[in-house]
Amino acid sequence: MIVISNPNEMRDWCKQKRDSIGFVPTMGSLHEGHLALIRQARKENTYVVVSIYVNPTQFGPHEDFESYPRVPERDCELISDVVDVVFLPTDSCMYPLGKNTHELIENKLSNKLCGASRPGHFDGVLKIVLKLLQIIPADKLYMGLKDFQQQLLISRMIEEFYLPVRMIACPTVREPSGLALSSRNQYLSYEEQQIAPLLYKTIVSFPELFKIKGCDQTCRELTTTLEKEGFQVDYLQILDQTTLDEAETLNENTRIFVAARLGSTRLIDNYGVYDA
Ligand code: AMP
Fold first, then answer.
1. Where are the alpha helices (DSSP H) in 16-120?
2. Least crowded by CB within 10 Å, which of 107, 224, 239, 252?
3. Does the CB atom of residue 198 touch ligand 1 within 6 A?
4. What is the pLDDT of residues 190-241, one digit of tens each?
5. 180 lines ligand 1 (CB under 6 A)
6. pLDDT attached to residue 156
7. 78 Cα–ligand 1 center, Å
8. What angle do CA 270, 70, 178 make, to 5 degrees?
């Protein structure tokens, strides 16, 4: 495995390769969720590139950009046997002209869910992924369904701009308790760790309740359940997973989306009718 920090060097490396490249973008502090994406990329491609970059433009002014866990040496060691290249750029490489010189704004899906509670978040995500795909012209891009809206927005960007890469959306990796793995789980105190699995346990019950009580009442009841357990619910919505419009009926596209805080840690999760 080699580590490359310079974008031009990274692009030259990719250009020399004749066989397929799988690319896994991450913000580091790698866990089993990331490793599942990397293993799948390994199976399906001749070469695997992983980027590790905590992208400043996707964090709001009062979010955890400064405190986001950064352990690049440990990360590189963890994946050295499975990955060909780790791309580890600096801010000045990724934003050579400054952070706000160009904007990439999506107007249909990015203002809902996490985009509503984190204004500008997805503009930053789309911008960095577009940059990374120019530097790493991969055949396949591996992203997790844990960040469902992110994966959906990037799939749409690929379609809209005819980007020559195929999205491979990978299932959410969970703790045995059901808690979705996340680099932010390490912020949780011992007490919060006992409560956190209730997020997933609560949302998986939505289809049964939806059949009896419909969308609005189900959302209200599940929100109340979570708040009684100590979560501060940012949003809990049942939507059509292709349009992110409110679900009117229960069908194969119906998915529940939740973001909730436990103390200062913001957790997100989602569950579709056919995920079980
Ligand atoms: P992050 O480092 O949090 O930006 O995540 C990098 C990639 O890993 C994204 O495509 C995430 O959706 C994916 N990912 C993060 N956590 C998980 C998980 N628990 N299961 C599957 N994929 C994940």
1. 32-44, 72-79, 91-94, 113-117
2. 107
3. no
4. 999 999 999 999 999 999 999 999 999 999 999 999 999 999 999 999 999 9
5. yes
6. 98
7. 16
8. 25
Dihedral sign, CA of 53, 133, 116, 202?
A: negative
The dihedral of CA 212, 216, 218, 220: what is its sign? negative
Q: How confident is the model at residue 87, as a pLDDT?
A: 98
Cβ of 35 closer than 6 Å to ligand 1, yes or no, is no
Going by CA atoms, what residue is nearest to atom 6 of ligand 1? 26
Nearest Cα residue to atom 13 of ligand 1: 144
Q: At what angle do helices 121-135 and 148-160 cross, to 10 degrees?
A: 60
Those residues of the chain that have pLDDT short of 50 are none
**What's the residue count for the chain?**
276
Tell me the C-alpha distance between 199 and 36, whole Å.
22
Nearest CA to 63 out of 167, 187, 158, 173 is that of 187
Residue type, 173: V
Q: Is the CB of 170 under 6 A from ligand 1?
A: yes
- Identify any residues that bridge with 24 across adjacent strands, giving them in sequence order: 50
Rg (CA), the chain: 19
CA-nearest of 109, 102, 120 to 154 is 109
- Looking at this protein, which amino acid is placed at residue 169? A
- Ligand 1: which of 34, 49, 55, 75 to mutate, most ligand atoms within 8 Å of CB? 34
Residue 264 to residues 157, 222, 236, 238, Cα–Cα distance (Å): 32, 21, 18, 25
| DSSP E strands, 118-206 | 140-144, 166-170
Give the model's pLDDT for residue 275: 87
Query: Is the distance from the beta carbon of residue 33 to the nearest atom of ligand 1 less than 6 Å?
Result: yes
Instruction: Using alpha carbons, list the distances in angstroms from residue 37 to 26, 70, 159, 197.
Output: 10, 19, 21, 22
